[in-house]
Amino acid sequence: MLPEADLVLADVFDVRRASDVPLAGRESHLVILKARDSDRYLTLFISPSEGTPLALSLEAVEVPRPLTHQLAARIAAACGARITEVAITRLVDSTFYATIVLETPGGRQEIDARPSDALNLAILDEAPITVEAALLSDVDQLDGAAWWDYPGRTEIVAAAQARRRELERQLDVLDRRRRGEAAGS
Questions:
Q1: Which residue in 8, 61, 141, 153 could disulfide with 55, CB within 3.0 to 4.6 Å?
Q2: The domain 4-184: what is its CATH number?
Q3: Is residue 86 classed as helix, strand or coil in its secondary structure?
Q4: Cα separations in angstroms, 79 against 74, 96, 102, 121, 184
């Protein structure tokens, strides 16, 4: 990992849905990290499958079954490990890289990870997030669309909850049909 002097403490400022910015042909989400010591930011495009759980975690929404990142955090804890830091370390050919730092019974371990996965774990375990200082930009230097115009995490959470309620409704209808067919046979 990088020397500590090159890393800046940051927080997840927001997660936003950028439906007009496709990522692998699908809508994408933006994660906005803000340096704690300045008005410098890092924006990362991620898929909805990582962005929605991150928004749910930031809003402290309980889910009935563990999501992938929650499961990974539980497995680490069950093995006696704890996440002590997540670092966004570099950008190579438009791909960001991250490192998850674990304290394990066998000592410190550094694991290469996608930033979206690392950030999800950091939020769950309340681990500090650091960013390579050179990756941060002043807000007026950010490229692309103005991310503050995109729907934020509360809208992402509301949409996820609405999808879940609709799925539960559909499952309930199917279950009632199944029971009705079984009673009629």
A1: 153
A2: 3.10.690.10
A3: strand
A4: 9, 28, 11, 15, 51
Model pLDDT, residue 26: 63
pLDDT score for 134: 92
Residue range 37-68, pLDDT digits in tens: 988 999 888 888 888 888 888 888 888 889 89
- Where are the chain's structural domains? 4-184
Question: b/e per residue, 98-127, with b = 16+ CB within 10 A?
Answer: bbbbbeeeeeeeeeebbbbbbbbbbbbbeb
Query: Which helix (H) or strand (E) element contains residue 110?
Result: strand 107-113
Give me the DSSP letters along 15-41: EEEEEEEEETTEEEEEEEEEETTSSEE
The model's pTM: 0.76
